[in-house]
Design a protein that fits this description.
This protein is of the alpha/beta class. It has two domains: 3-159, Cytidine Deaminase, domain 2 (3-Layer(aba) Sandwich), CATH 3.40.140.10; 172-321, Serine Threonine Protein Phosphatase 5, Tetratricopeptide repeat (Alpha Horseshoe). Helix content is 47%, strand content 13%. The chain has 15 helices and eight strands. The strands form two sheets. Strands 3-2-4-5-6-7 form a six-stranded mixed sheet, with helices on both faces. A hairpin with a 2-residue loop joins strand 2 and strand 3. Helix 12 runs parallel beside helix 14 (311-321).
């Protein structure tokens, strides 16, 4: 298997951005290591003045500890906070306690960087003779960044979705017509018909016609149909409950999940008002499966703006706000990998 090598701090910082899909701010980003192999990339909001630091440290330990093969961690502290010479490093007390707690669990902090608006420096060397600031522009010209961009990856400025402006006419009348038809059907027959269309669109690609889009949006407005269609997305045979909660032992077919996200975006562009809530919530569930909590939260918030009483958005957003990840996202065997990283293994660490 082809390997992508990490040779410099610039490569590692670029990897953090590409793994998250956006450039973090006021965040602690941890990359889990198993010998010289890369595991999950985890992002946490940096503790504020009112943050319970014990809870913060416990949260980091919990998520790192879900990878039982983890032997090391490297981190990036992304912050606009300045670090004047001869003063304490940002969040020094928290990081010292976190380092000690990780060590007790057999996980060694291998290296870490403090990353500001225009420069970065080695966090562990701040205050020593070896402390040097490096321009952040070097990350953009790093070998790994160039390779990942070539493979189709990009780093957004923020975790938000680039949801397009609704440039197409909505399908409210057609959606209502399909809702009346579904209400008149036997529930099982309605689910069967919905699954046939949904799976045809997931497997066949392409953009749905206006009538197909209206029917899909209508299907998502019925709870029993919606849940069944969500459970169909991963393309594996397991209990619907475990599929919705992202806790099967078998890994989802992530190419199929990517297609579902693409299809839901196309549906969203044809919705208006409360019709958008089930579509946005479904997008949020997929982001939660993938471990993208910030994007999931944004989807749920937009869903609740469309329909303040939409229950699934409320329930799943509660999981996100509590820092609960799907089991898929915490297991390296099942975790989501962006399309551009599914082929090559990333190894050959060259960190100092």
């Amino acid at each position: 298997m082809e390997k992508l090598s990490i040779k410099t701090p610039d490569d590692f910082i670029a990897l953090m951005g590409h793994s998250l899909g956006f450039w973090p701010s006021e965040s602690l980003v941890c990359v889990i290591l198993d010998d010289k192999r890369i595991g999950a990339t985890l992002r946490f909001n940096l503790p504020g003045a009112l943050t319970d630091t014990k809870h913060f440290i416990d949260q980091v330990l919990h998520h790192v500890g879900t990878d039982r093969q983890a032997t090391g961690v490297v981190f990036g502290m992304f912050t606009n906070e300045t670090w004047p010479p001869n003063e304490s490093r940002p969040h020094e007390g928290v990081m010292e306690e976190l380092t000690g707690r990780l060590s007790q669990h057999g996980v060694i902090v291998r290296d870490g960087w403090l990353i500001g608006e225009t420069t970065f420096t080695n966090y562990l060397r701040i205050g020593t003779a070896g402390s040097t600031n490096y321009p952040l522009d070097g990350v953009l010209s790093s070998e790994l960044n160039a390779e990942l961009v070539f493979r189709g990856s990009s780093i957004e400025a923020s975790p938000g979705f680039r949801i397009p402006v609704l440039a197409r006419p909505t399908l409210s009348t057609e959606i209502m017509r399909h809702c009346f038809r579904i209400e008149a059907m036997n529930p099982q027959a309605a689910i069967t018909r919905a699954r046939i269309l949904w799976n045809t669109m997931l497997d066949g690609g392409g953009e749905p016609t206006d009538d197909e889009a209206a029917e899909l949006i209508a299907n998502l407005k019925f709870i029993s149909v919606r849940d069944r269609l969500l459970a169909d997305i991963p393309g594996i045979d397991d209990s619907m409950r475990d599929l919705l909660l992202g806790q099967t032992k078998q890994s989802p077919h992530w190419n199929r999940v990517d297609r579902a996200s693409e299809l839901l975006f196309q549906l969203y562009m044809r919705t208006d008002g409360a019709d958008a809530a089930p579509v946005l919530t479904s997008l949020g569930v997929i982001q939660w499966w993938e471990g993208h909590s910030s994007k999931a939260h944004q989807c749920f918030q937009r869903a609740l703006e469309a329909d303040p009483d939409y229950r699934l958005a409320k329930l799943t957003d509660h999981l996100v706000r509590e820092g609960i990840l799907s089991d898929w996202a915490t297991d390296r065997q099942t975790a989501y990998q962006p399309p551009h990283t599914r082929g090559p293994e990333i190894g050959g660490l060259g960190i100092a």
